[in-house]
Amino acid sequence: MQSIRFKIGRSVFRRVGRYGSRLLLLAAGLISIHSLHAGASSPADQSKAVDLSKTVDKVAADDGKFKKPAWLKEFSVGLTQGFDSNVYLIDHAASDGVPSDHGTAFTAFNPRVAVSLVPLLNTKSLTALDFYYDATVTQYWDASTENNTRHKFGAALAGSLSDSFSYKVSNEFIYVDGGKRGDRYLFDPGTGANAYAYGLTRERKEQFQDRLNISAKQQLGNFFVRPVASLLYYDLLTKAEAGYANYPDRYDLNGGLDLGYQINQDVAVFVGYRYGHQFQGILPGLTTRQFSSDYQRVLFGVEGKPVKWLTLNLQGGPDFRKYEYDYAGADTPDVTYYFTGSVIADITSKDSLTLAANHFQFVSSTGQTSYFDRVTSLTYKRKLTDALTGSVGGQVWQSDYDQGPRNDLVYGIVAGLSYKFDDHWSASLDYAYRRGDNEVDSIPDREYTEHTVSVSVKWKL
What we know:
This protein is mainly beta. It has helices at residues 8-16, 18-41, 43-53, 197-202; strands at residues 72-84, 104-116, 126-140, 148-160, 165-177, 207-220, 223-236, 250-262, 267-280, 293-307, 310-323, 335-345, 351-363, 370-383, 388-401, 407-420, 425-438, 448-460.
């Protein structure tokens, strides 16, 4: 697939220079935020906005203050300045000169716009026709190979054809304009591939991603039928070169049906079936070595609010696999399990606790194996005042690989404070700790530690 290039901003940064580009990005973000805020406060600009928008919404209140039109869900600009203590995610120096524990400052600029066409349409059957664009431009002050711009394009469609039939479609397409070459130090014989370093640094490289979800629901009294389909797609655009980390294309496509029962208006249970296919591309030199598979899942789930303060969204069950190839030494499972879901407890009006998990079998980005992935997180959030909110949480990632002695574990702690100055301005202070461990003693020197601290400011219309 021919990649789309976004090189205007990058060429400007390169001409300014290595450190000047970072300072330019920081200044540009501050100027943009200030200009937007000033424009929203200018009486002349307010009158122009009213003239353009009054056909679709009441955009000016009696006090003369500007109000965004109903079709504009969000228009915001964010700026983050932070420091990453270990941007390459290695604690042991690699032979090609990549330093261990290499810290660098970084600057991120994040504009976002979201619109809804529903207010423009004279219909009650459509509840969502939304589109958004979200970009994050990240520049590392002393690690230019990690610079990237992440473009997100999203769309959502939801509505009903009758009182008993409804549907939902959502899609997020991502293009990362990042490095065109994989990391070389991941293959250094003295260090090996660091735990999760493939996946975490890979997200900064050039690639496409797509996430599509489709569902419909037919209510039959207290029972319902719900056909569903989903796609998870990765198209990695880095060069395939010997000695560098190469990333194959991957996808997971599945569809099926849920049969459910509405216990009451707030809680439903269901049993479901999914048939799917996971694809893993072939890397140079591996000829037919890949771990693509077909699978079938039987799911049991519960969703809704059994009590006022508790929200459940849980599903899981056995996963039956058939792999396209059978390799010696690869312990690919015929039967495993799938689980995904969240539990949200609103303990008080100011306190909430969220437990989330996603456990599933997938194909690895190394192109040489399949693995079982487990991600679990717990987050506590507290509203300290009307303007100040604090949060703290923990996360655990674990990947158990079917080929070779590899079992990776990464755990982290995150904490943050956010302050809302008014309806337009907010700021946040965030800290994250991450530790990568190798659970197999036969592969040494794969551990790493990373600390990230950042300060952000955001303006929204």
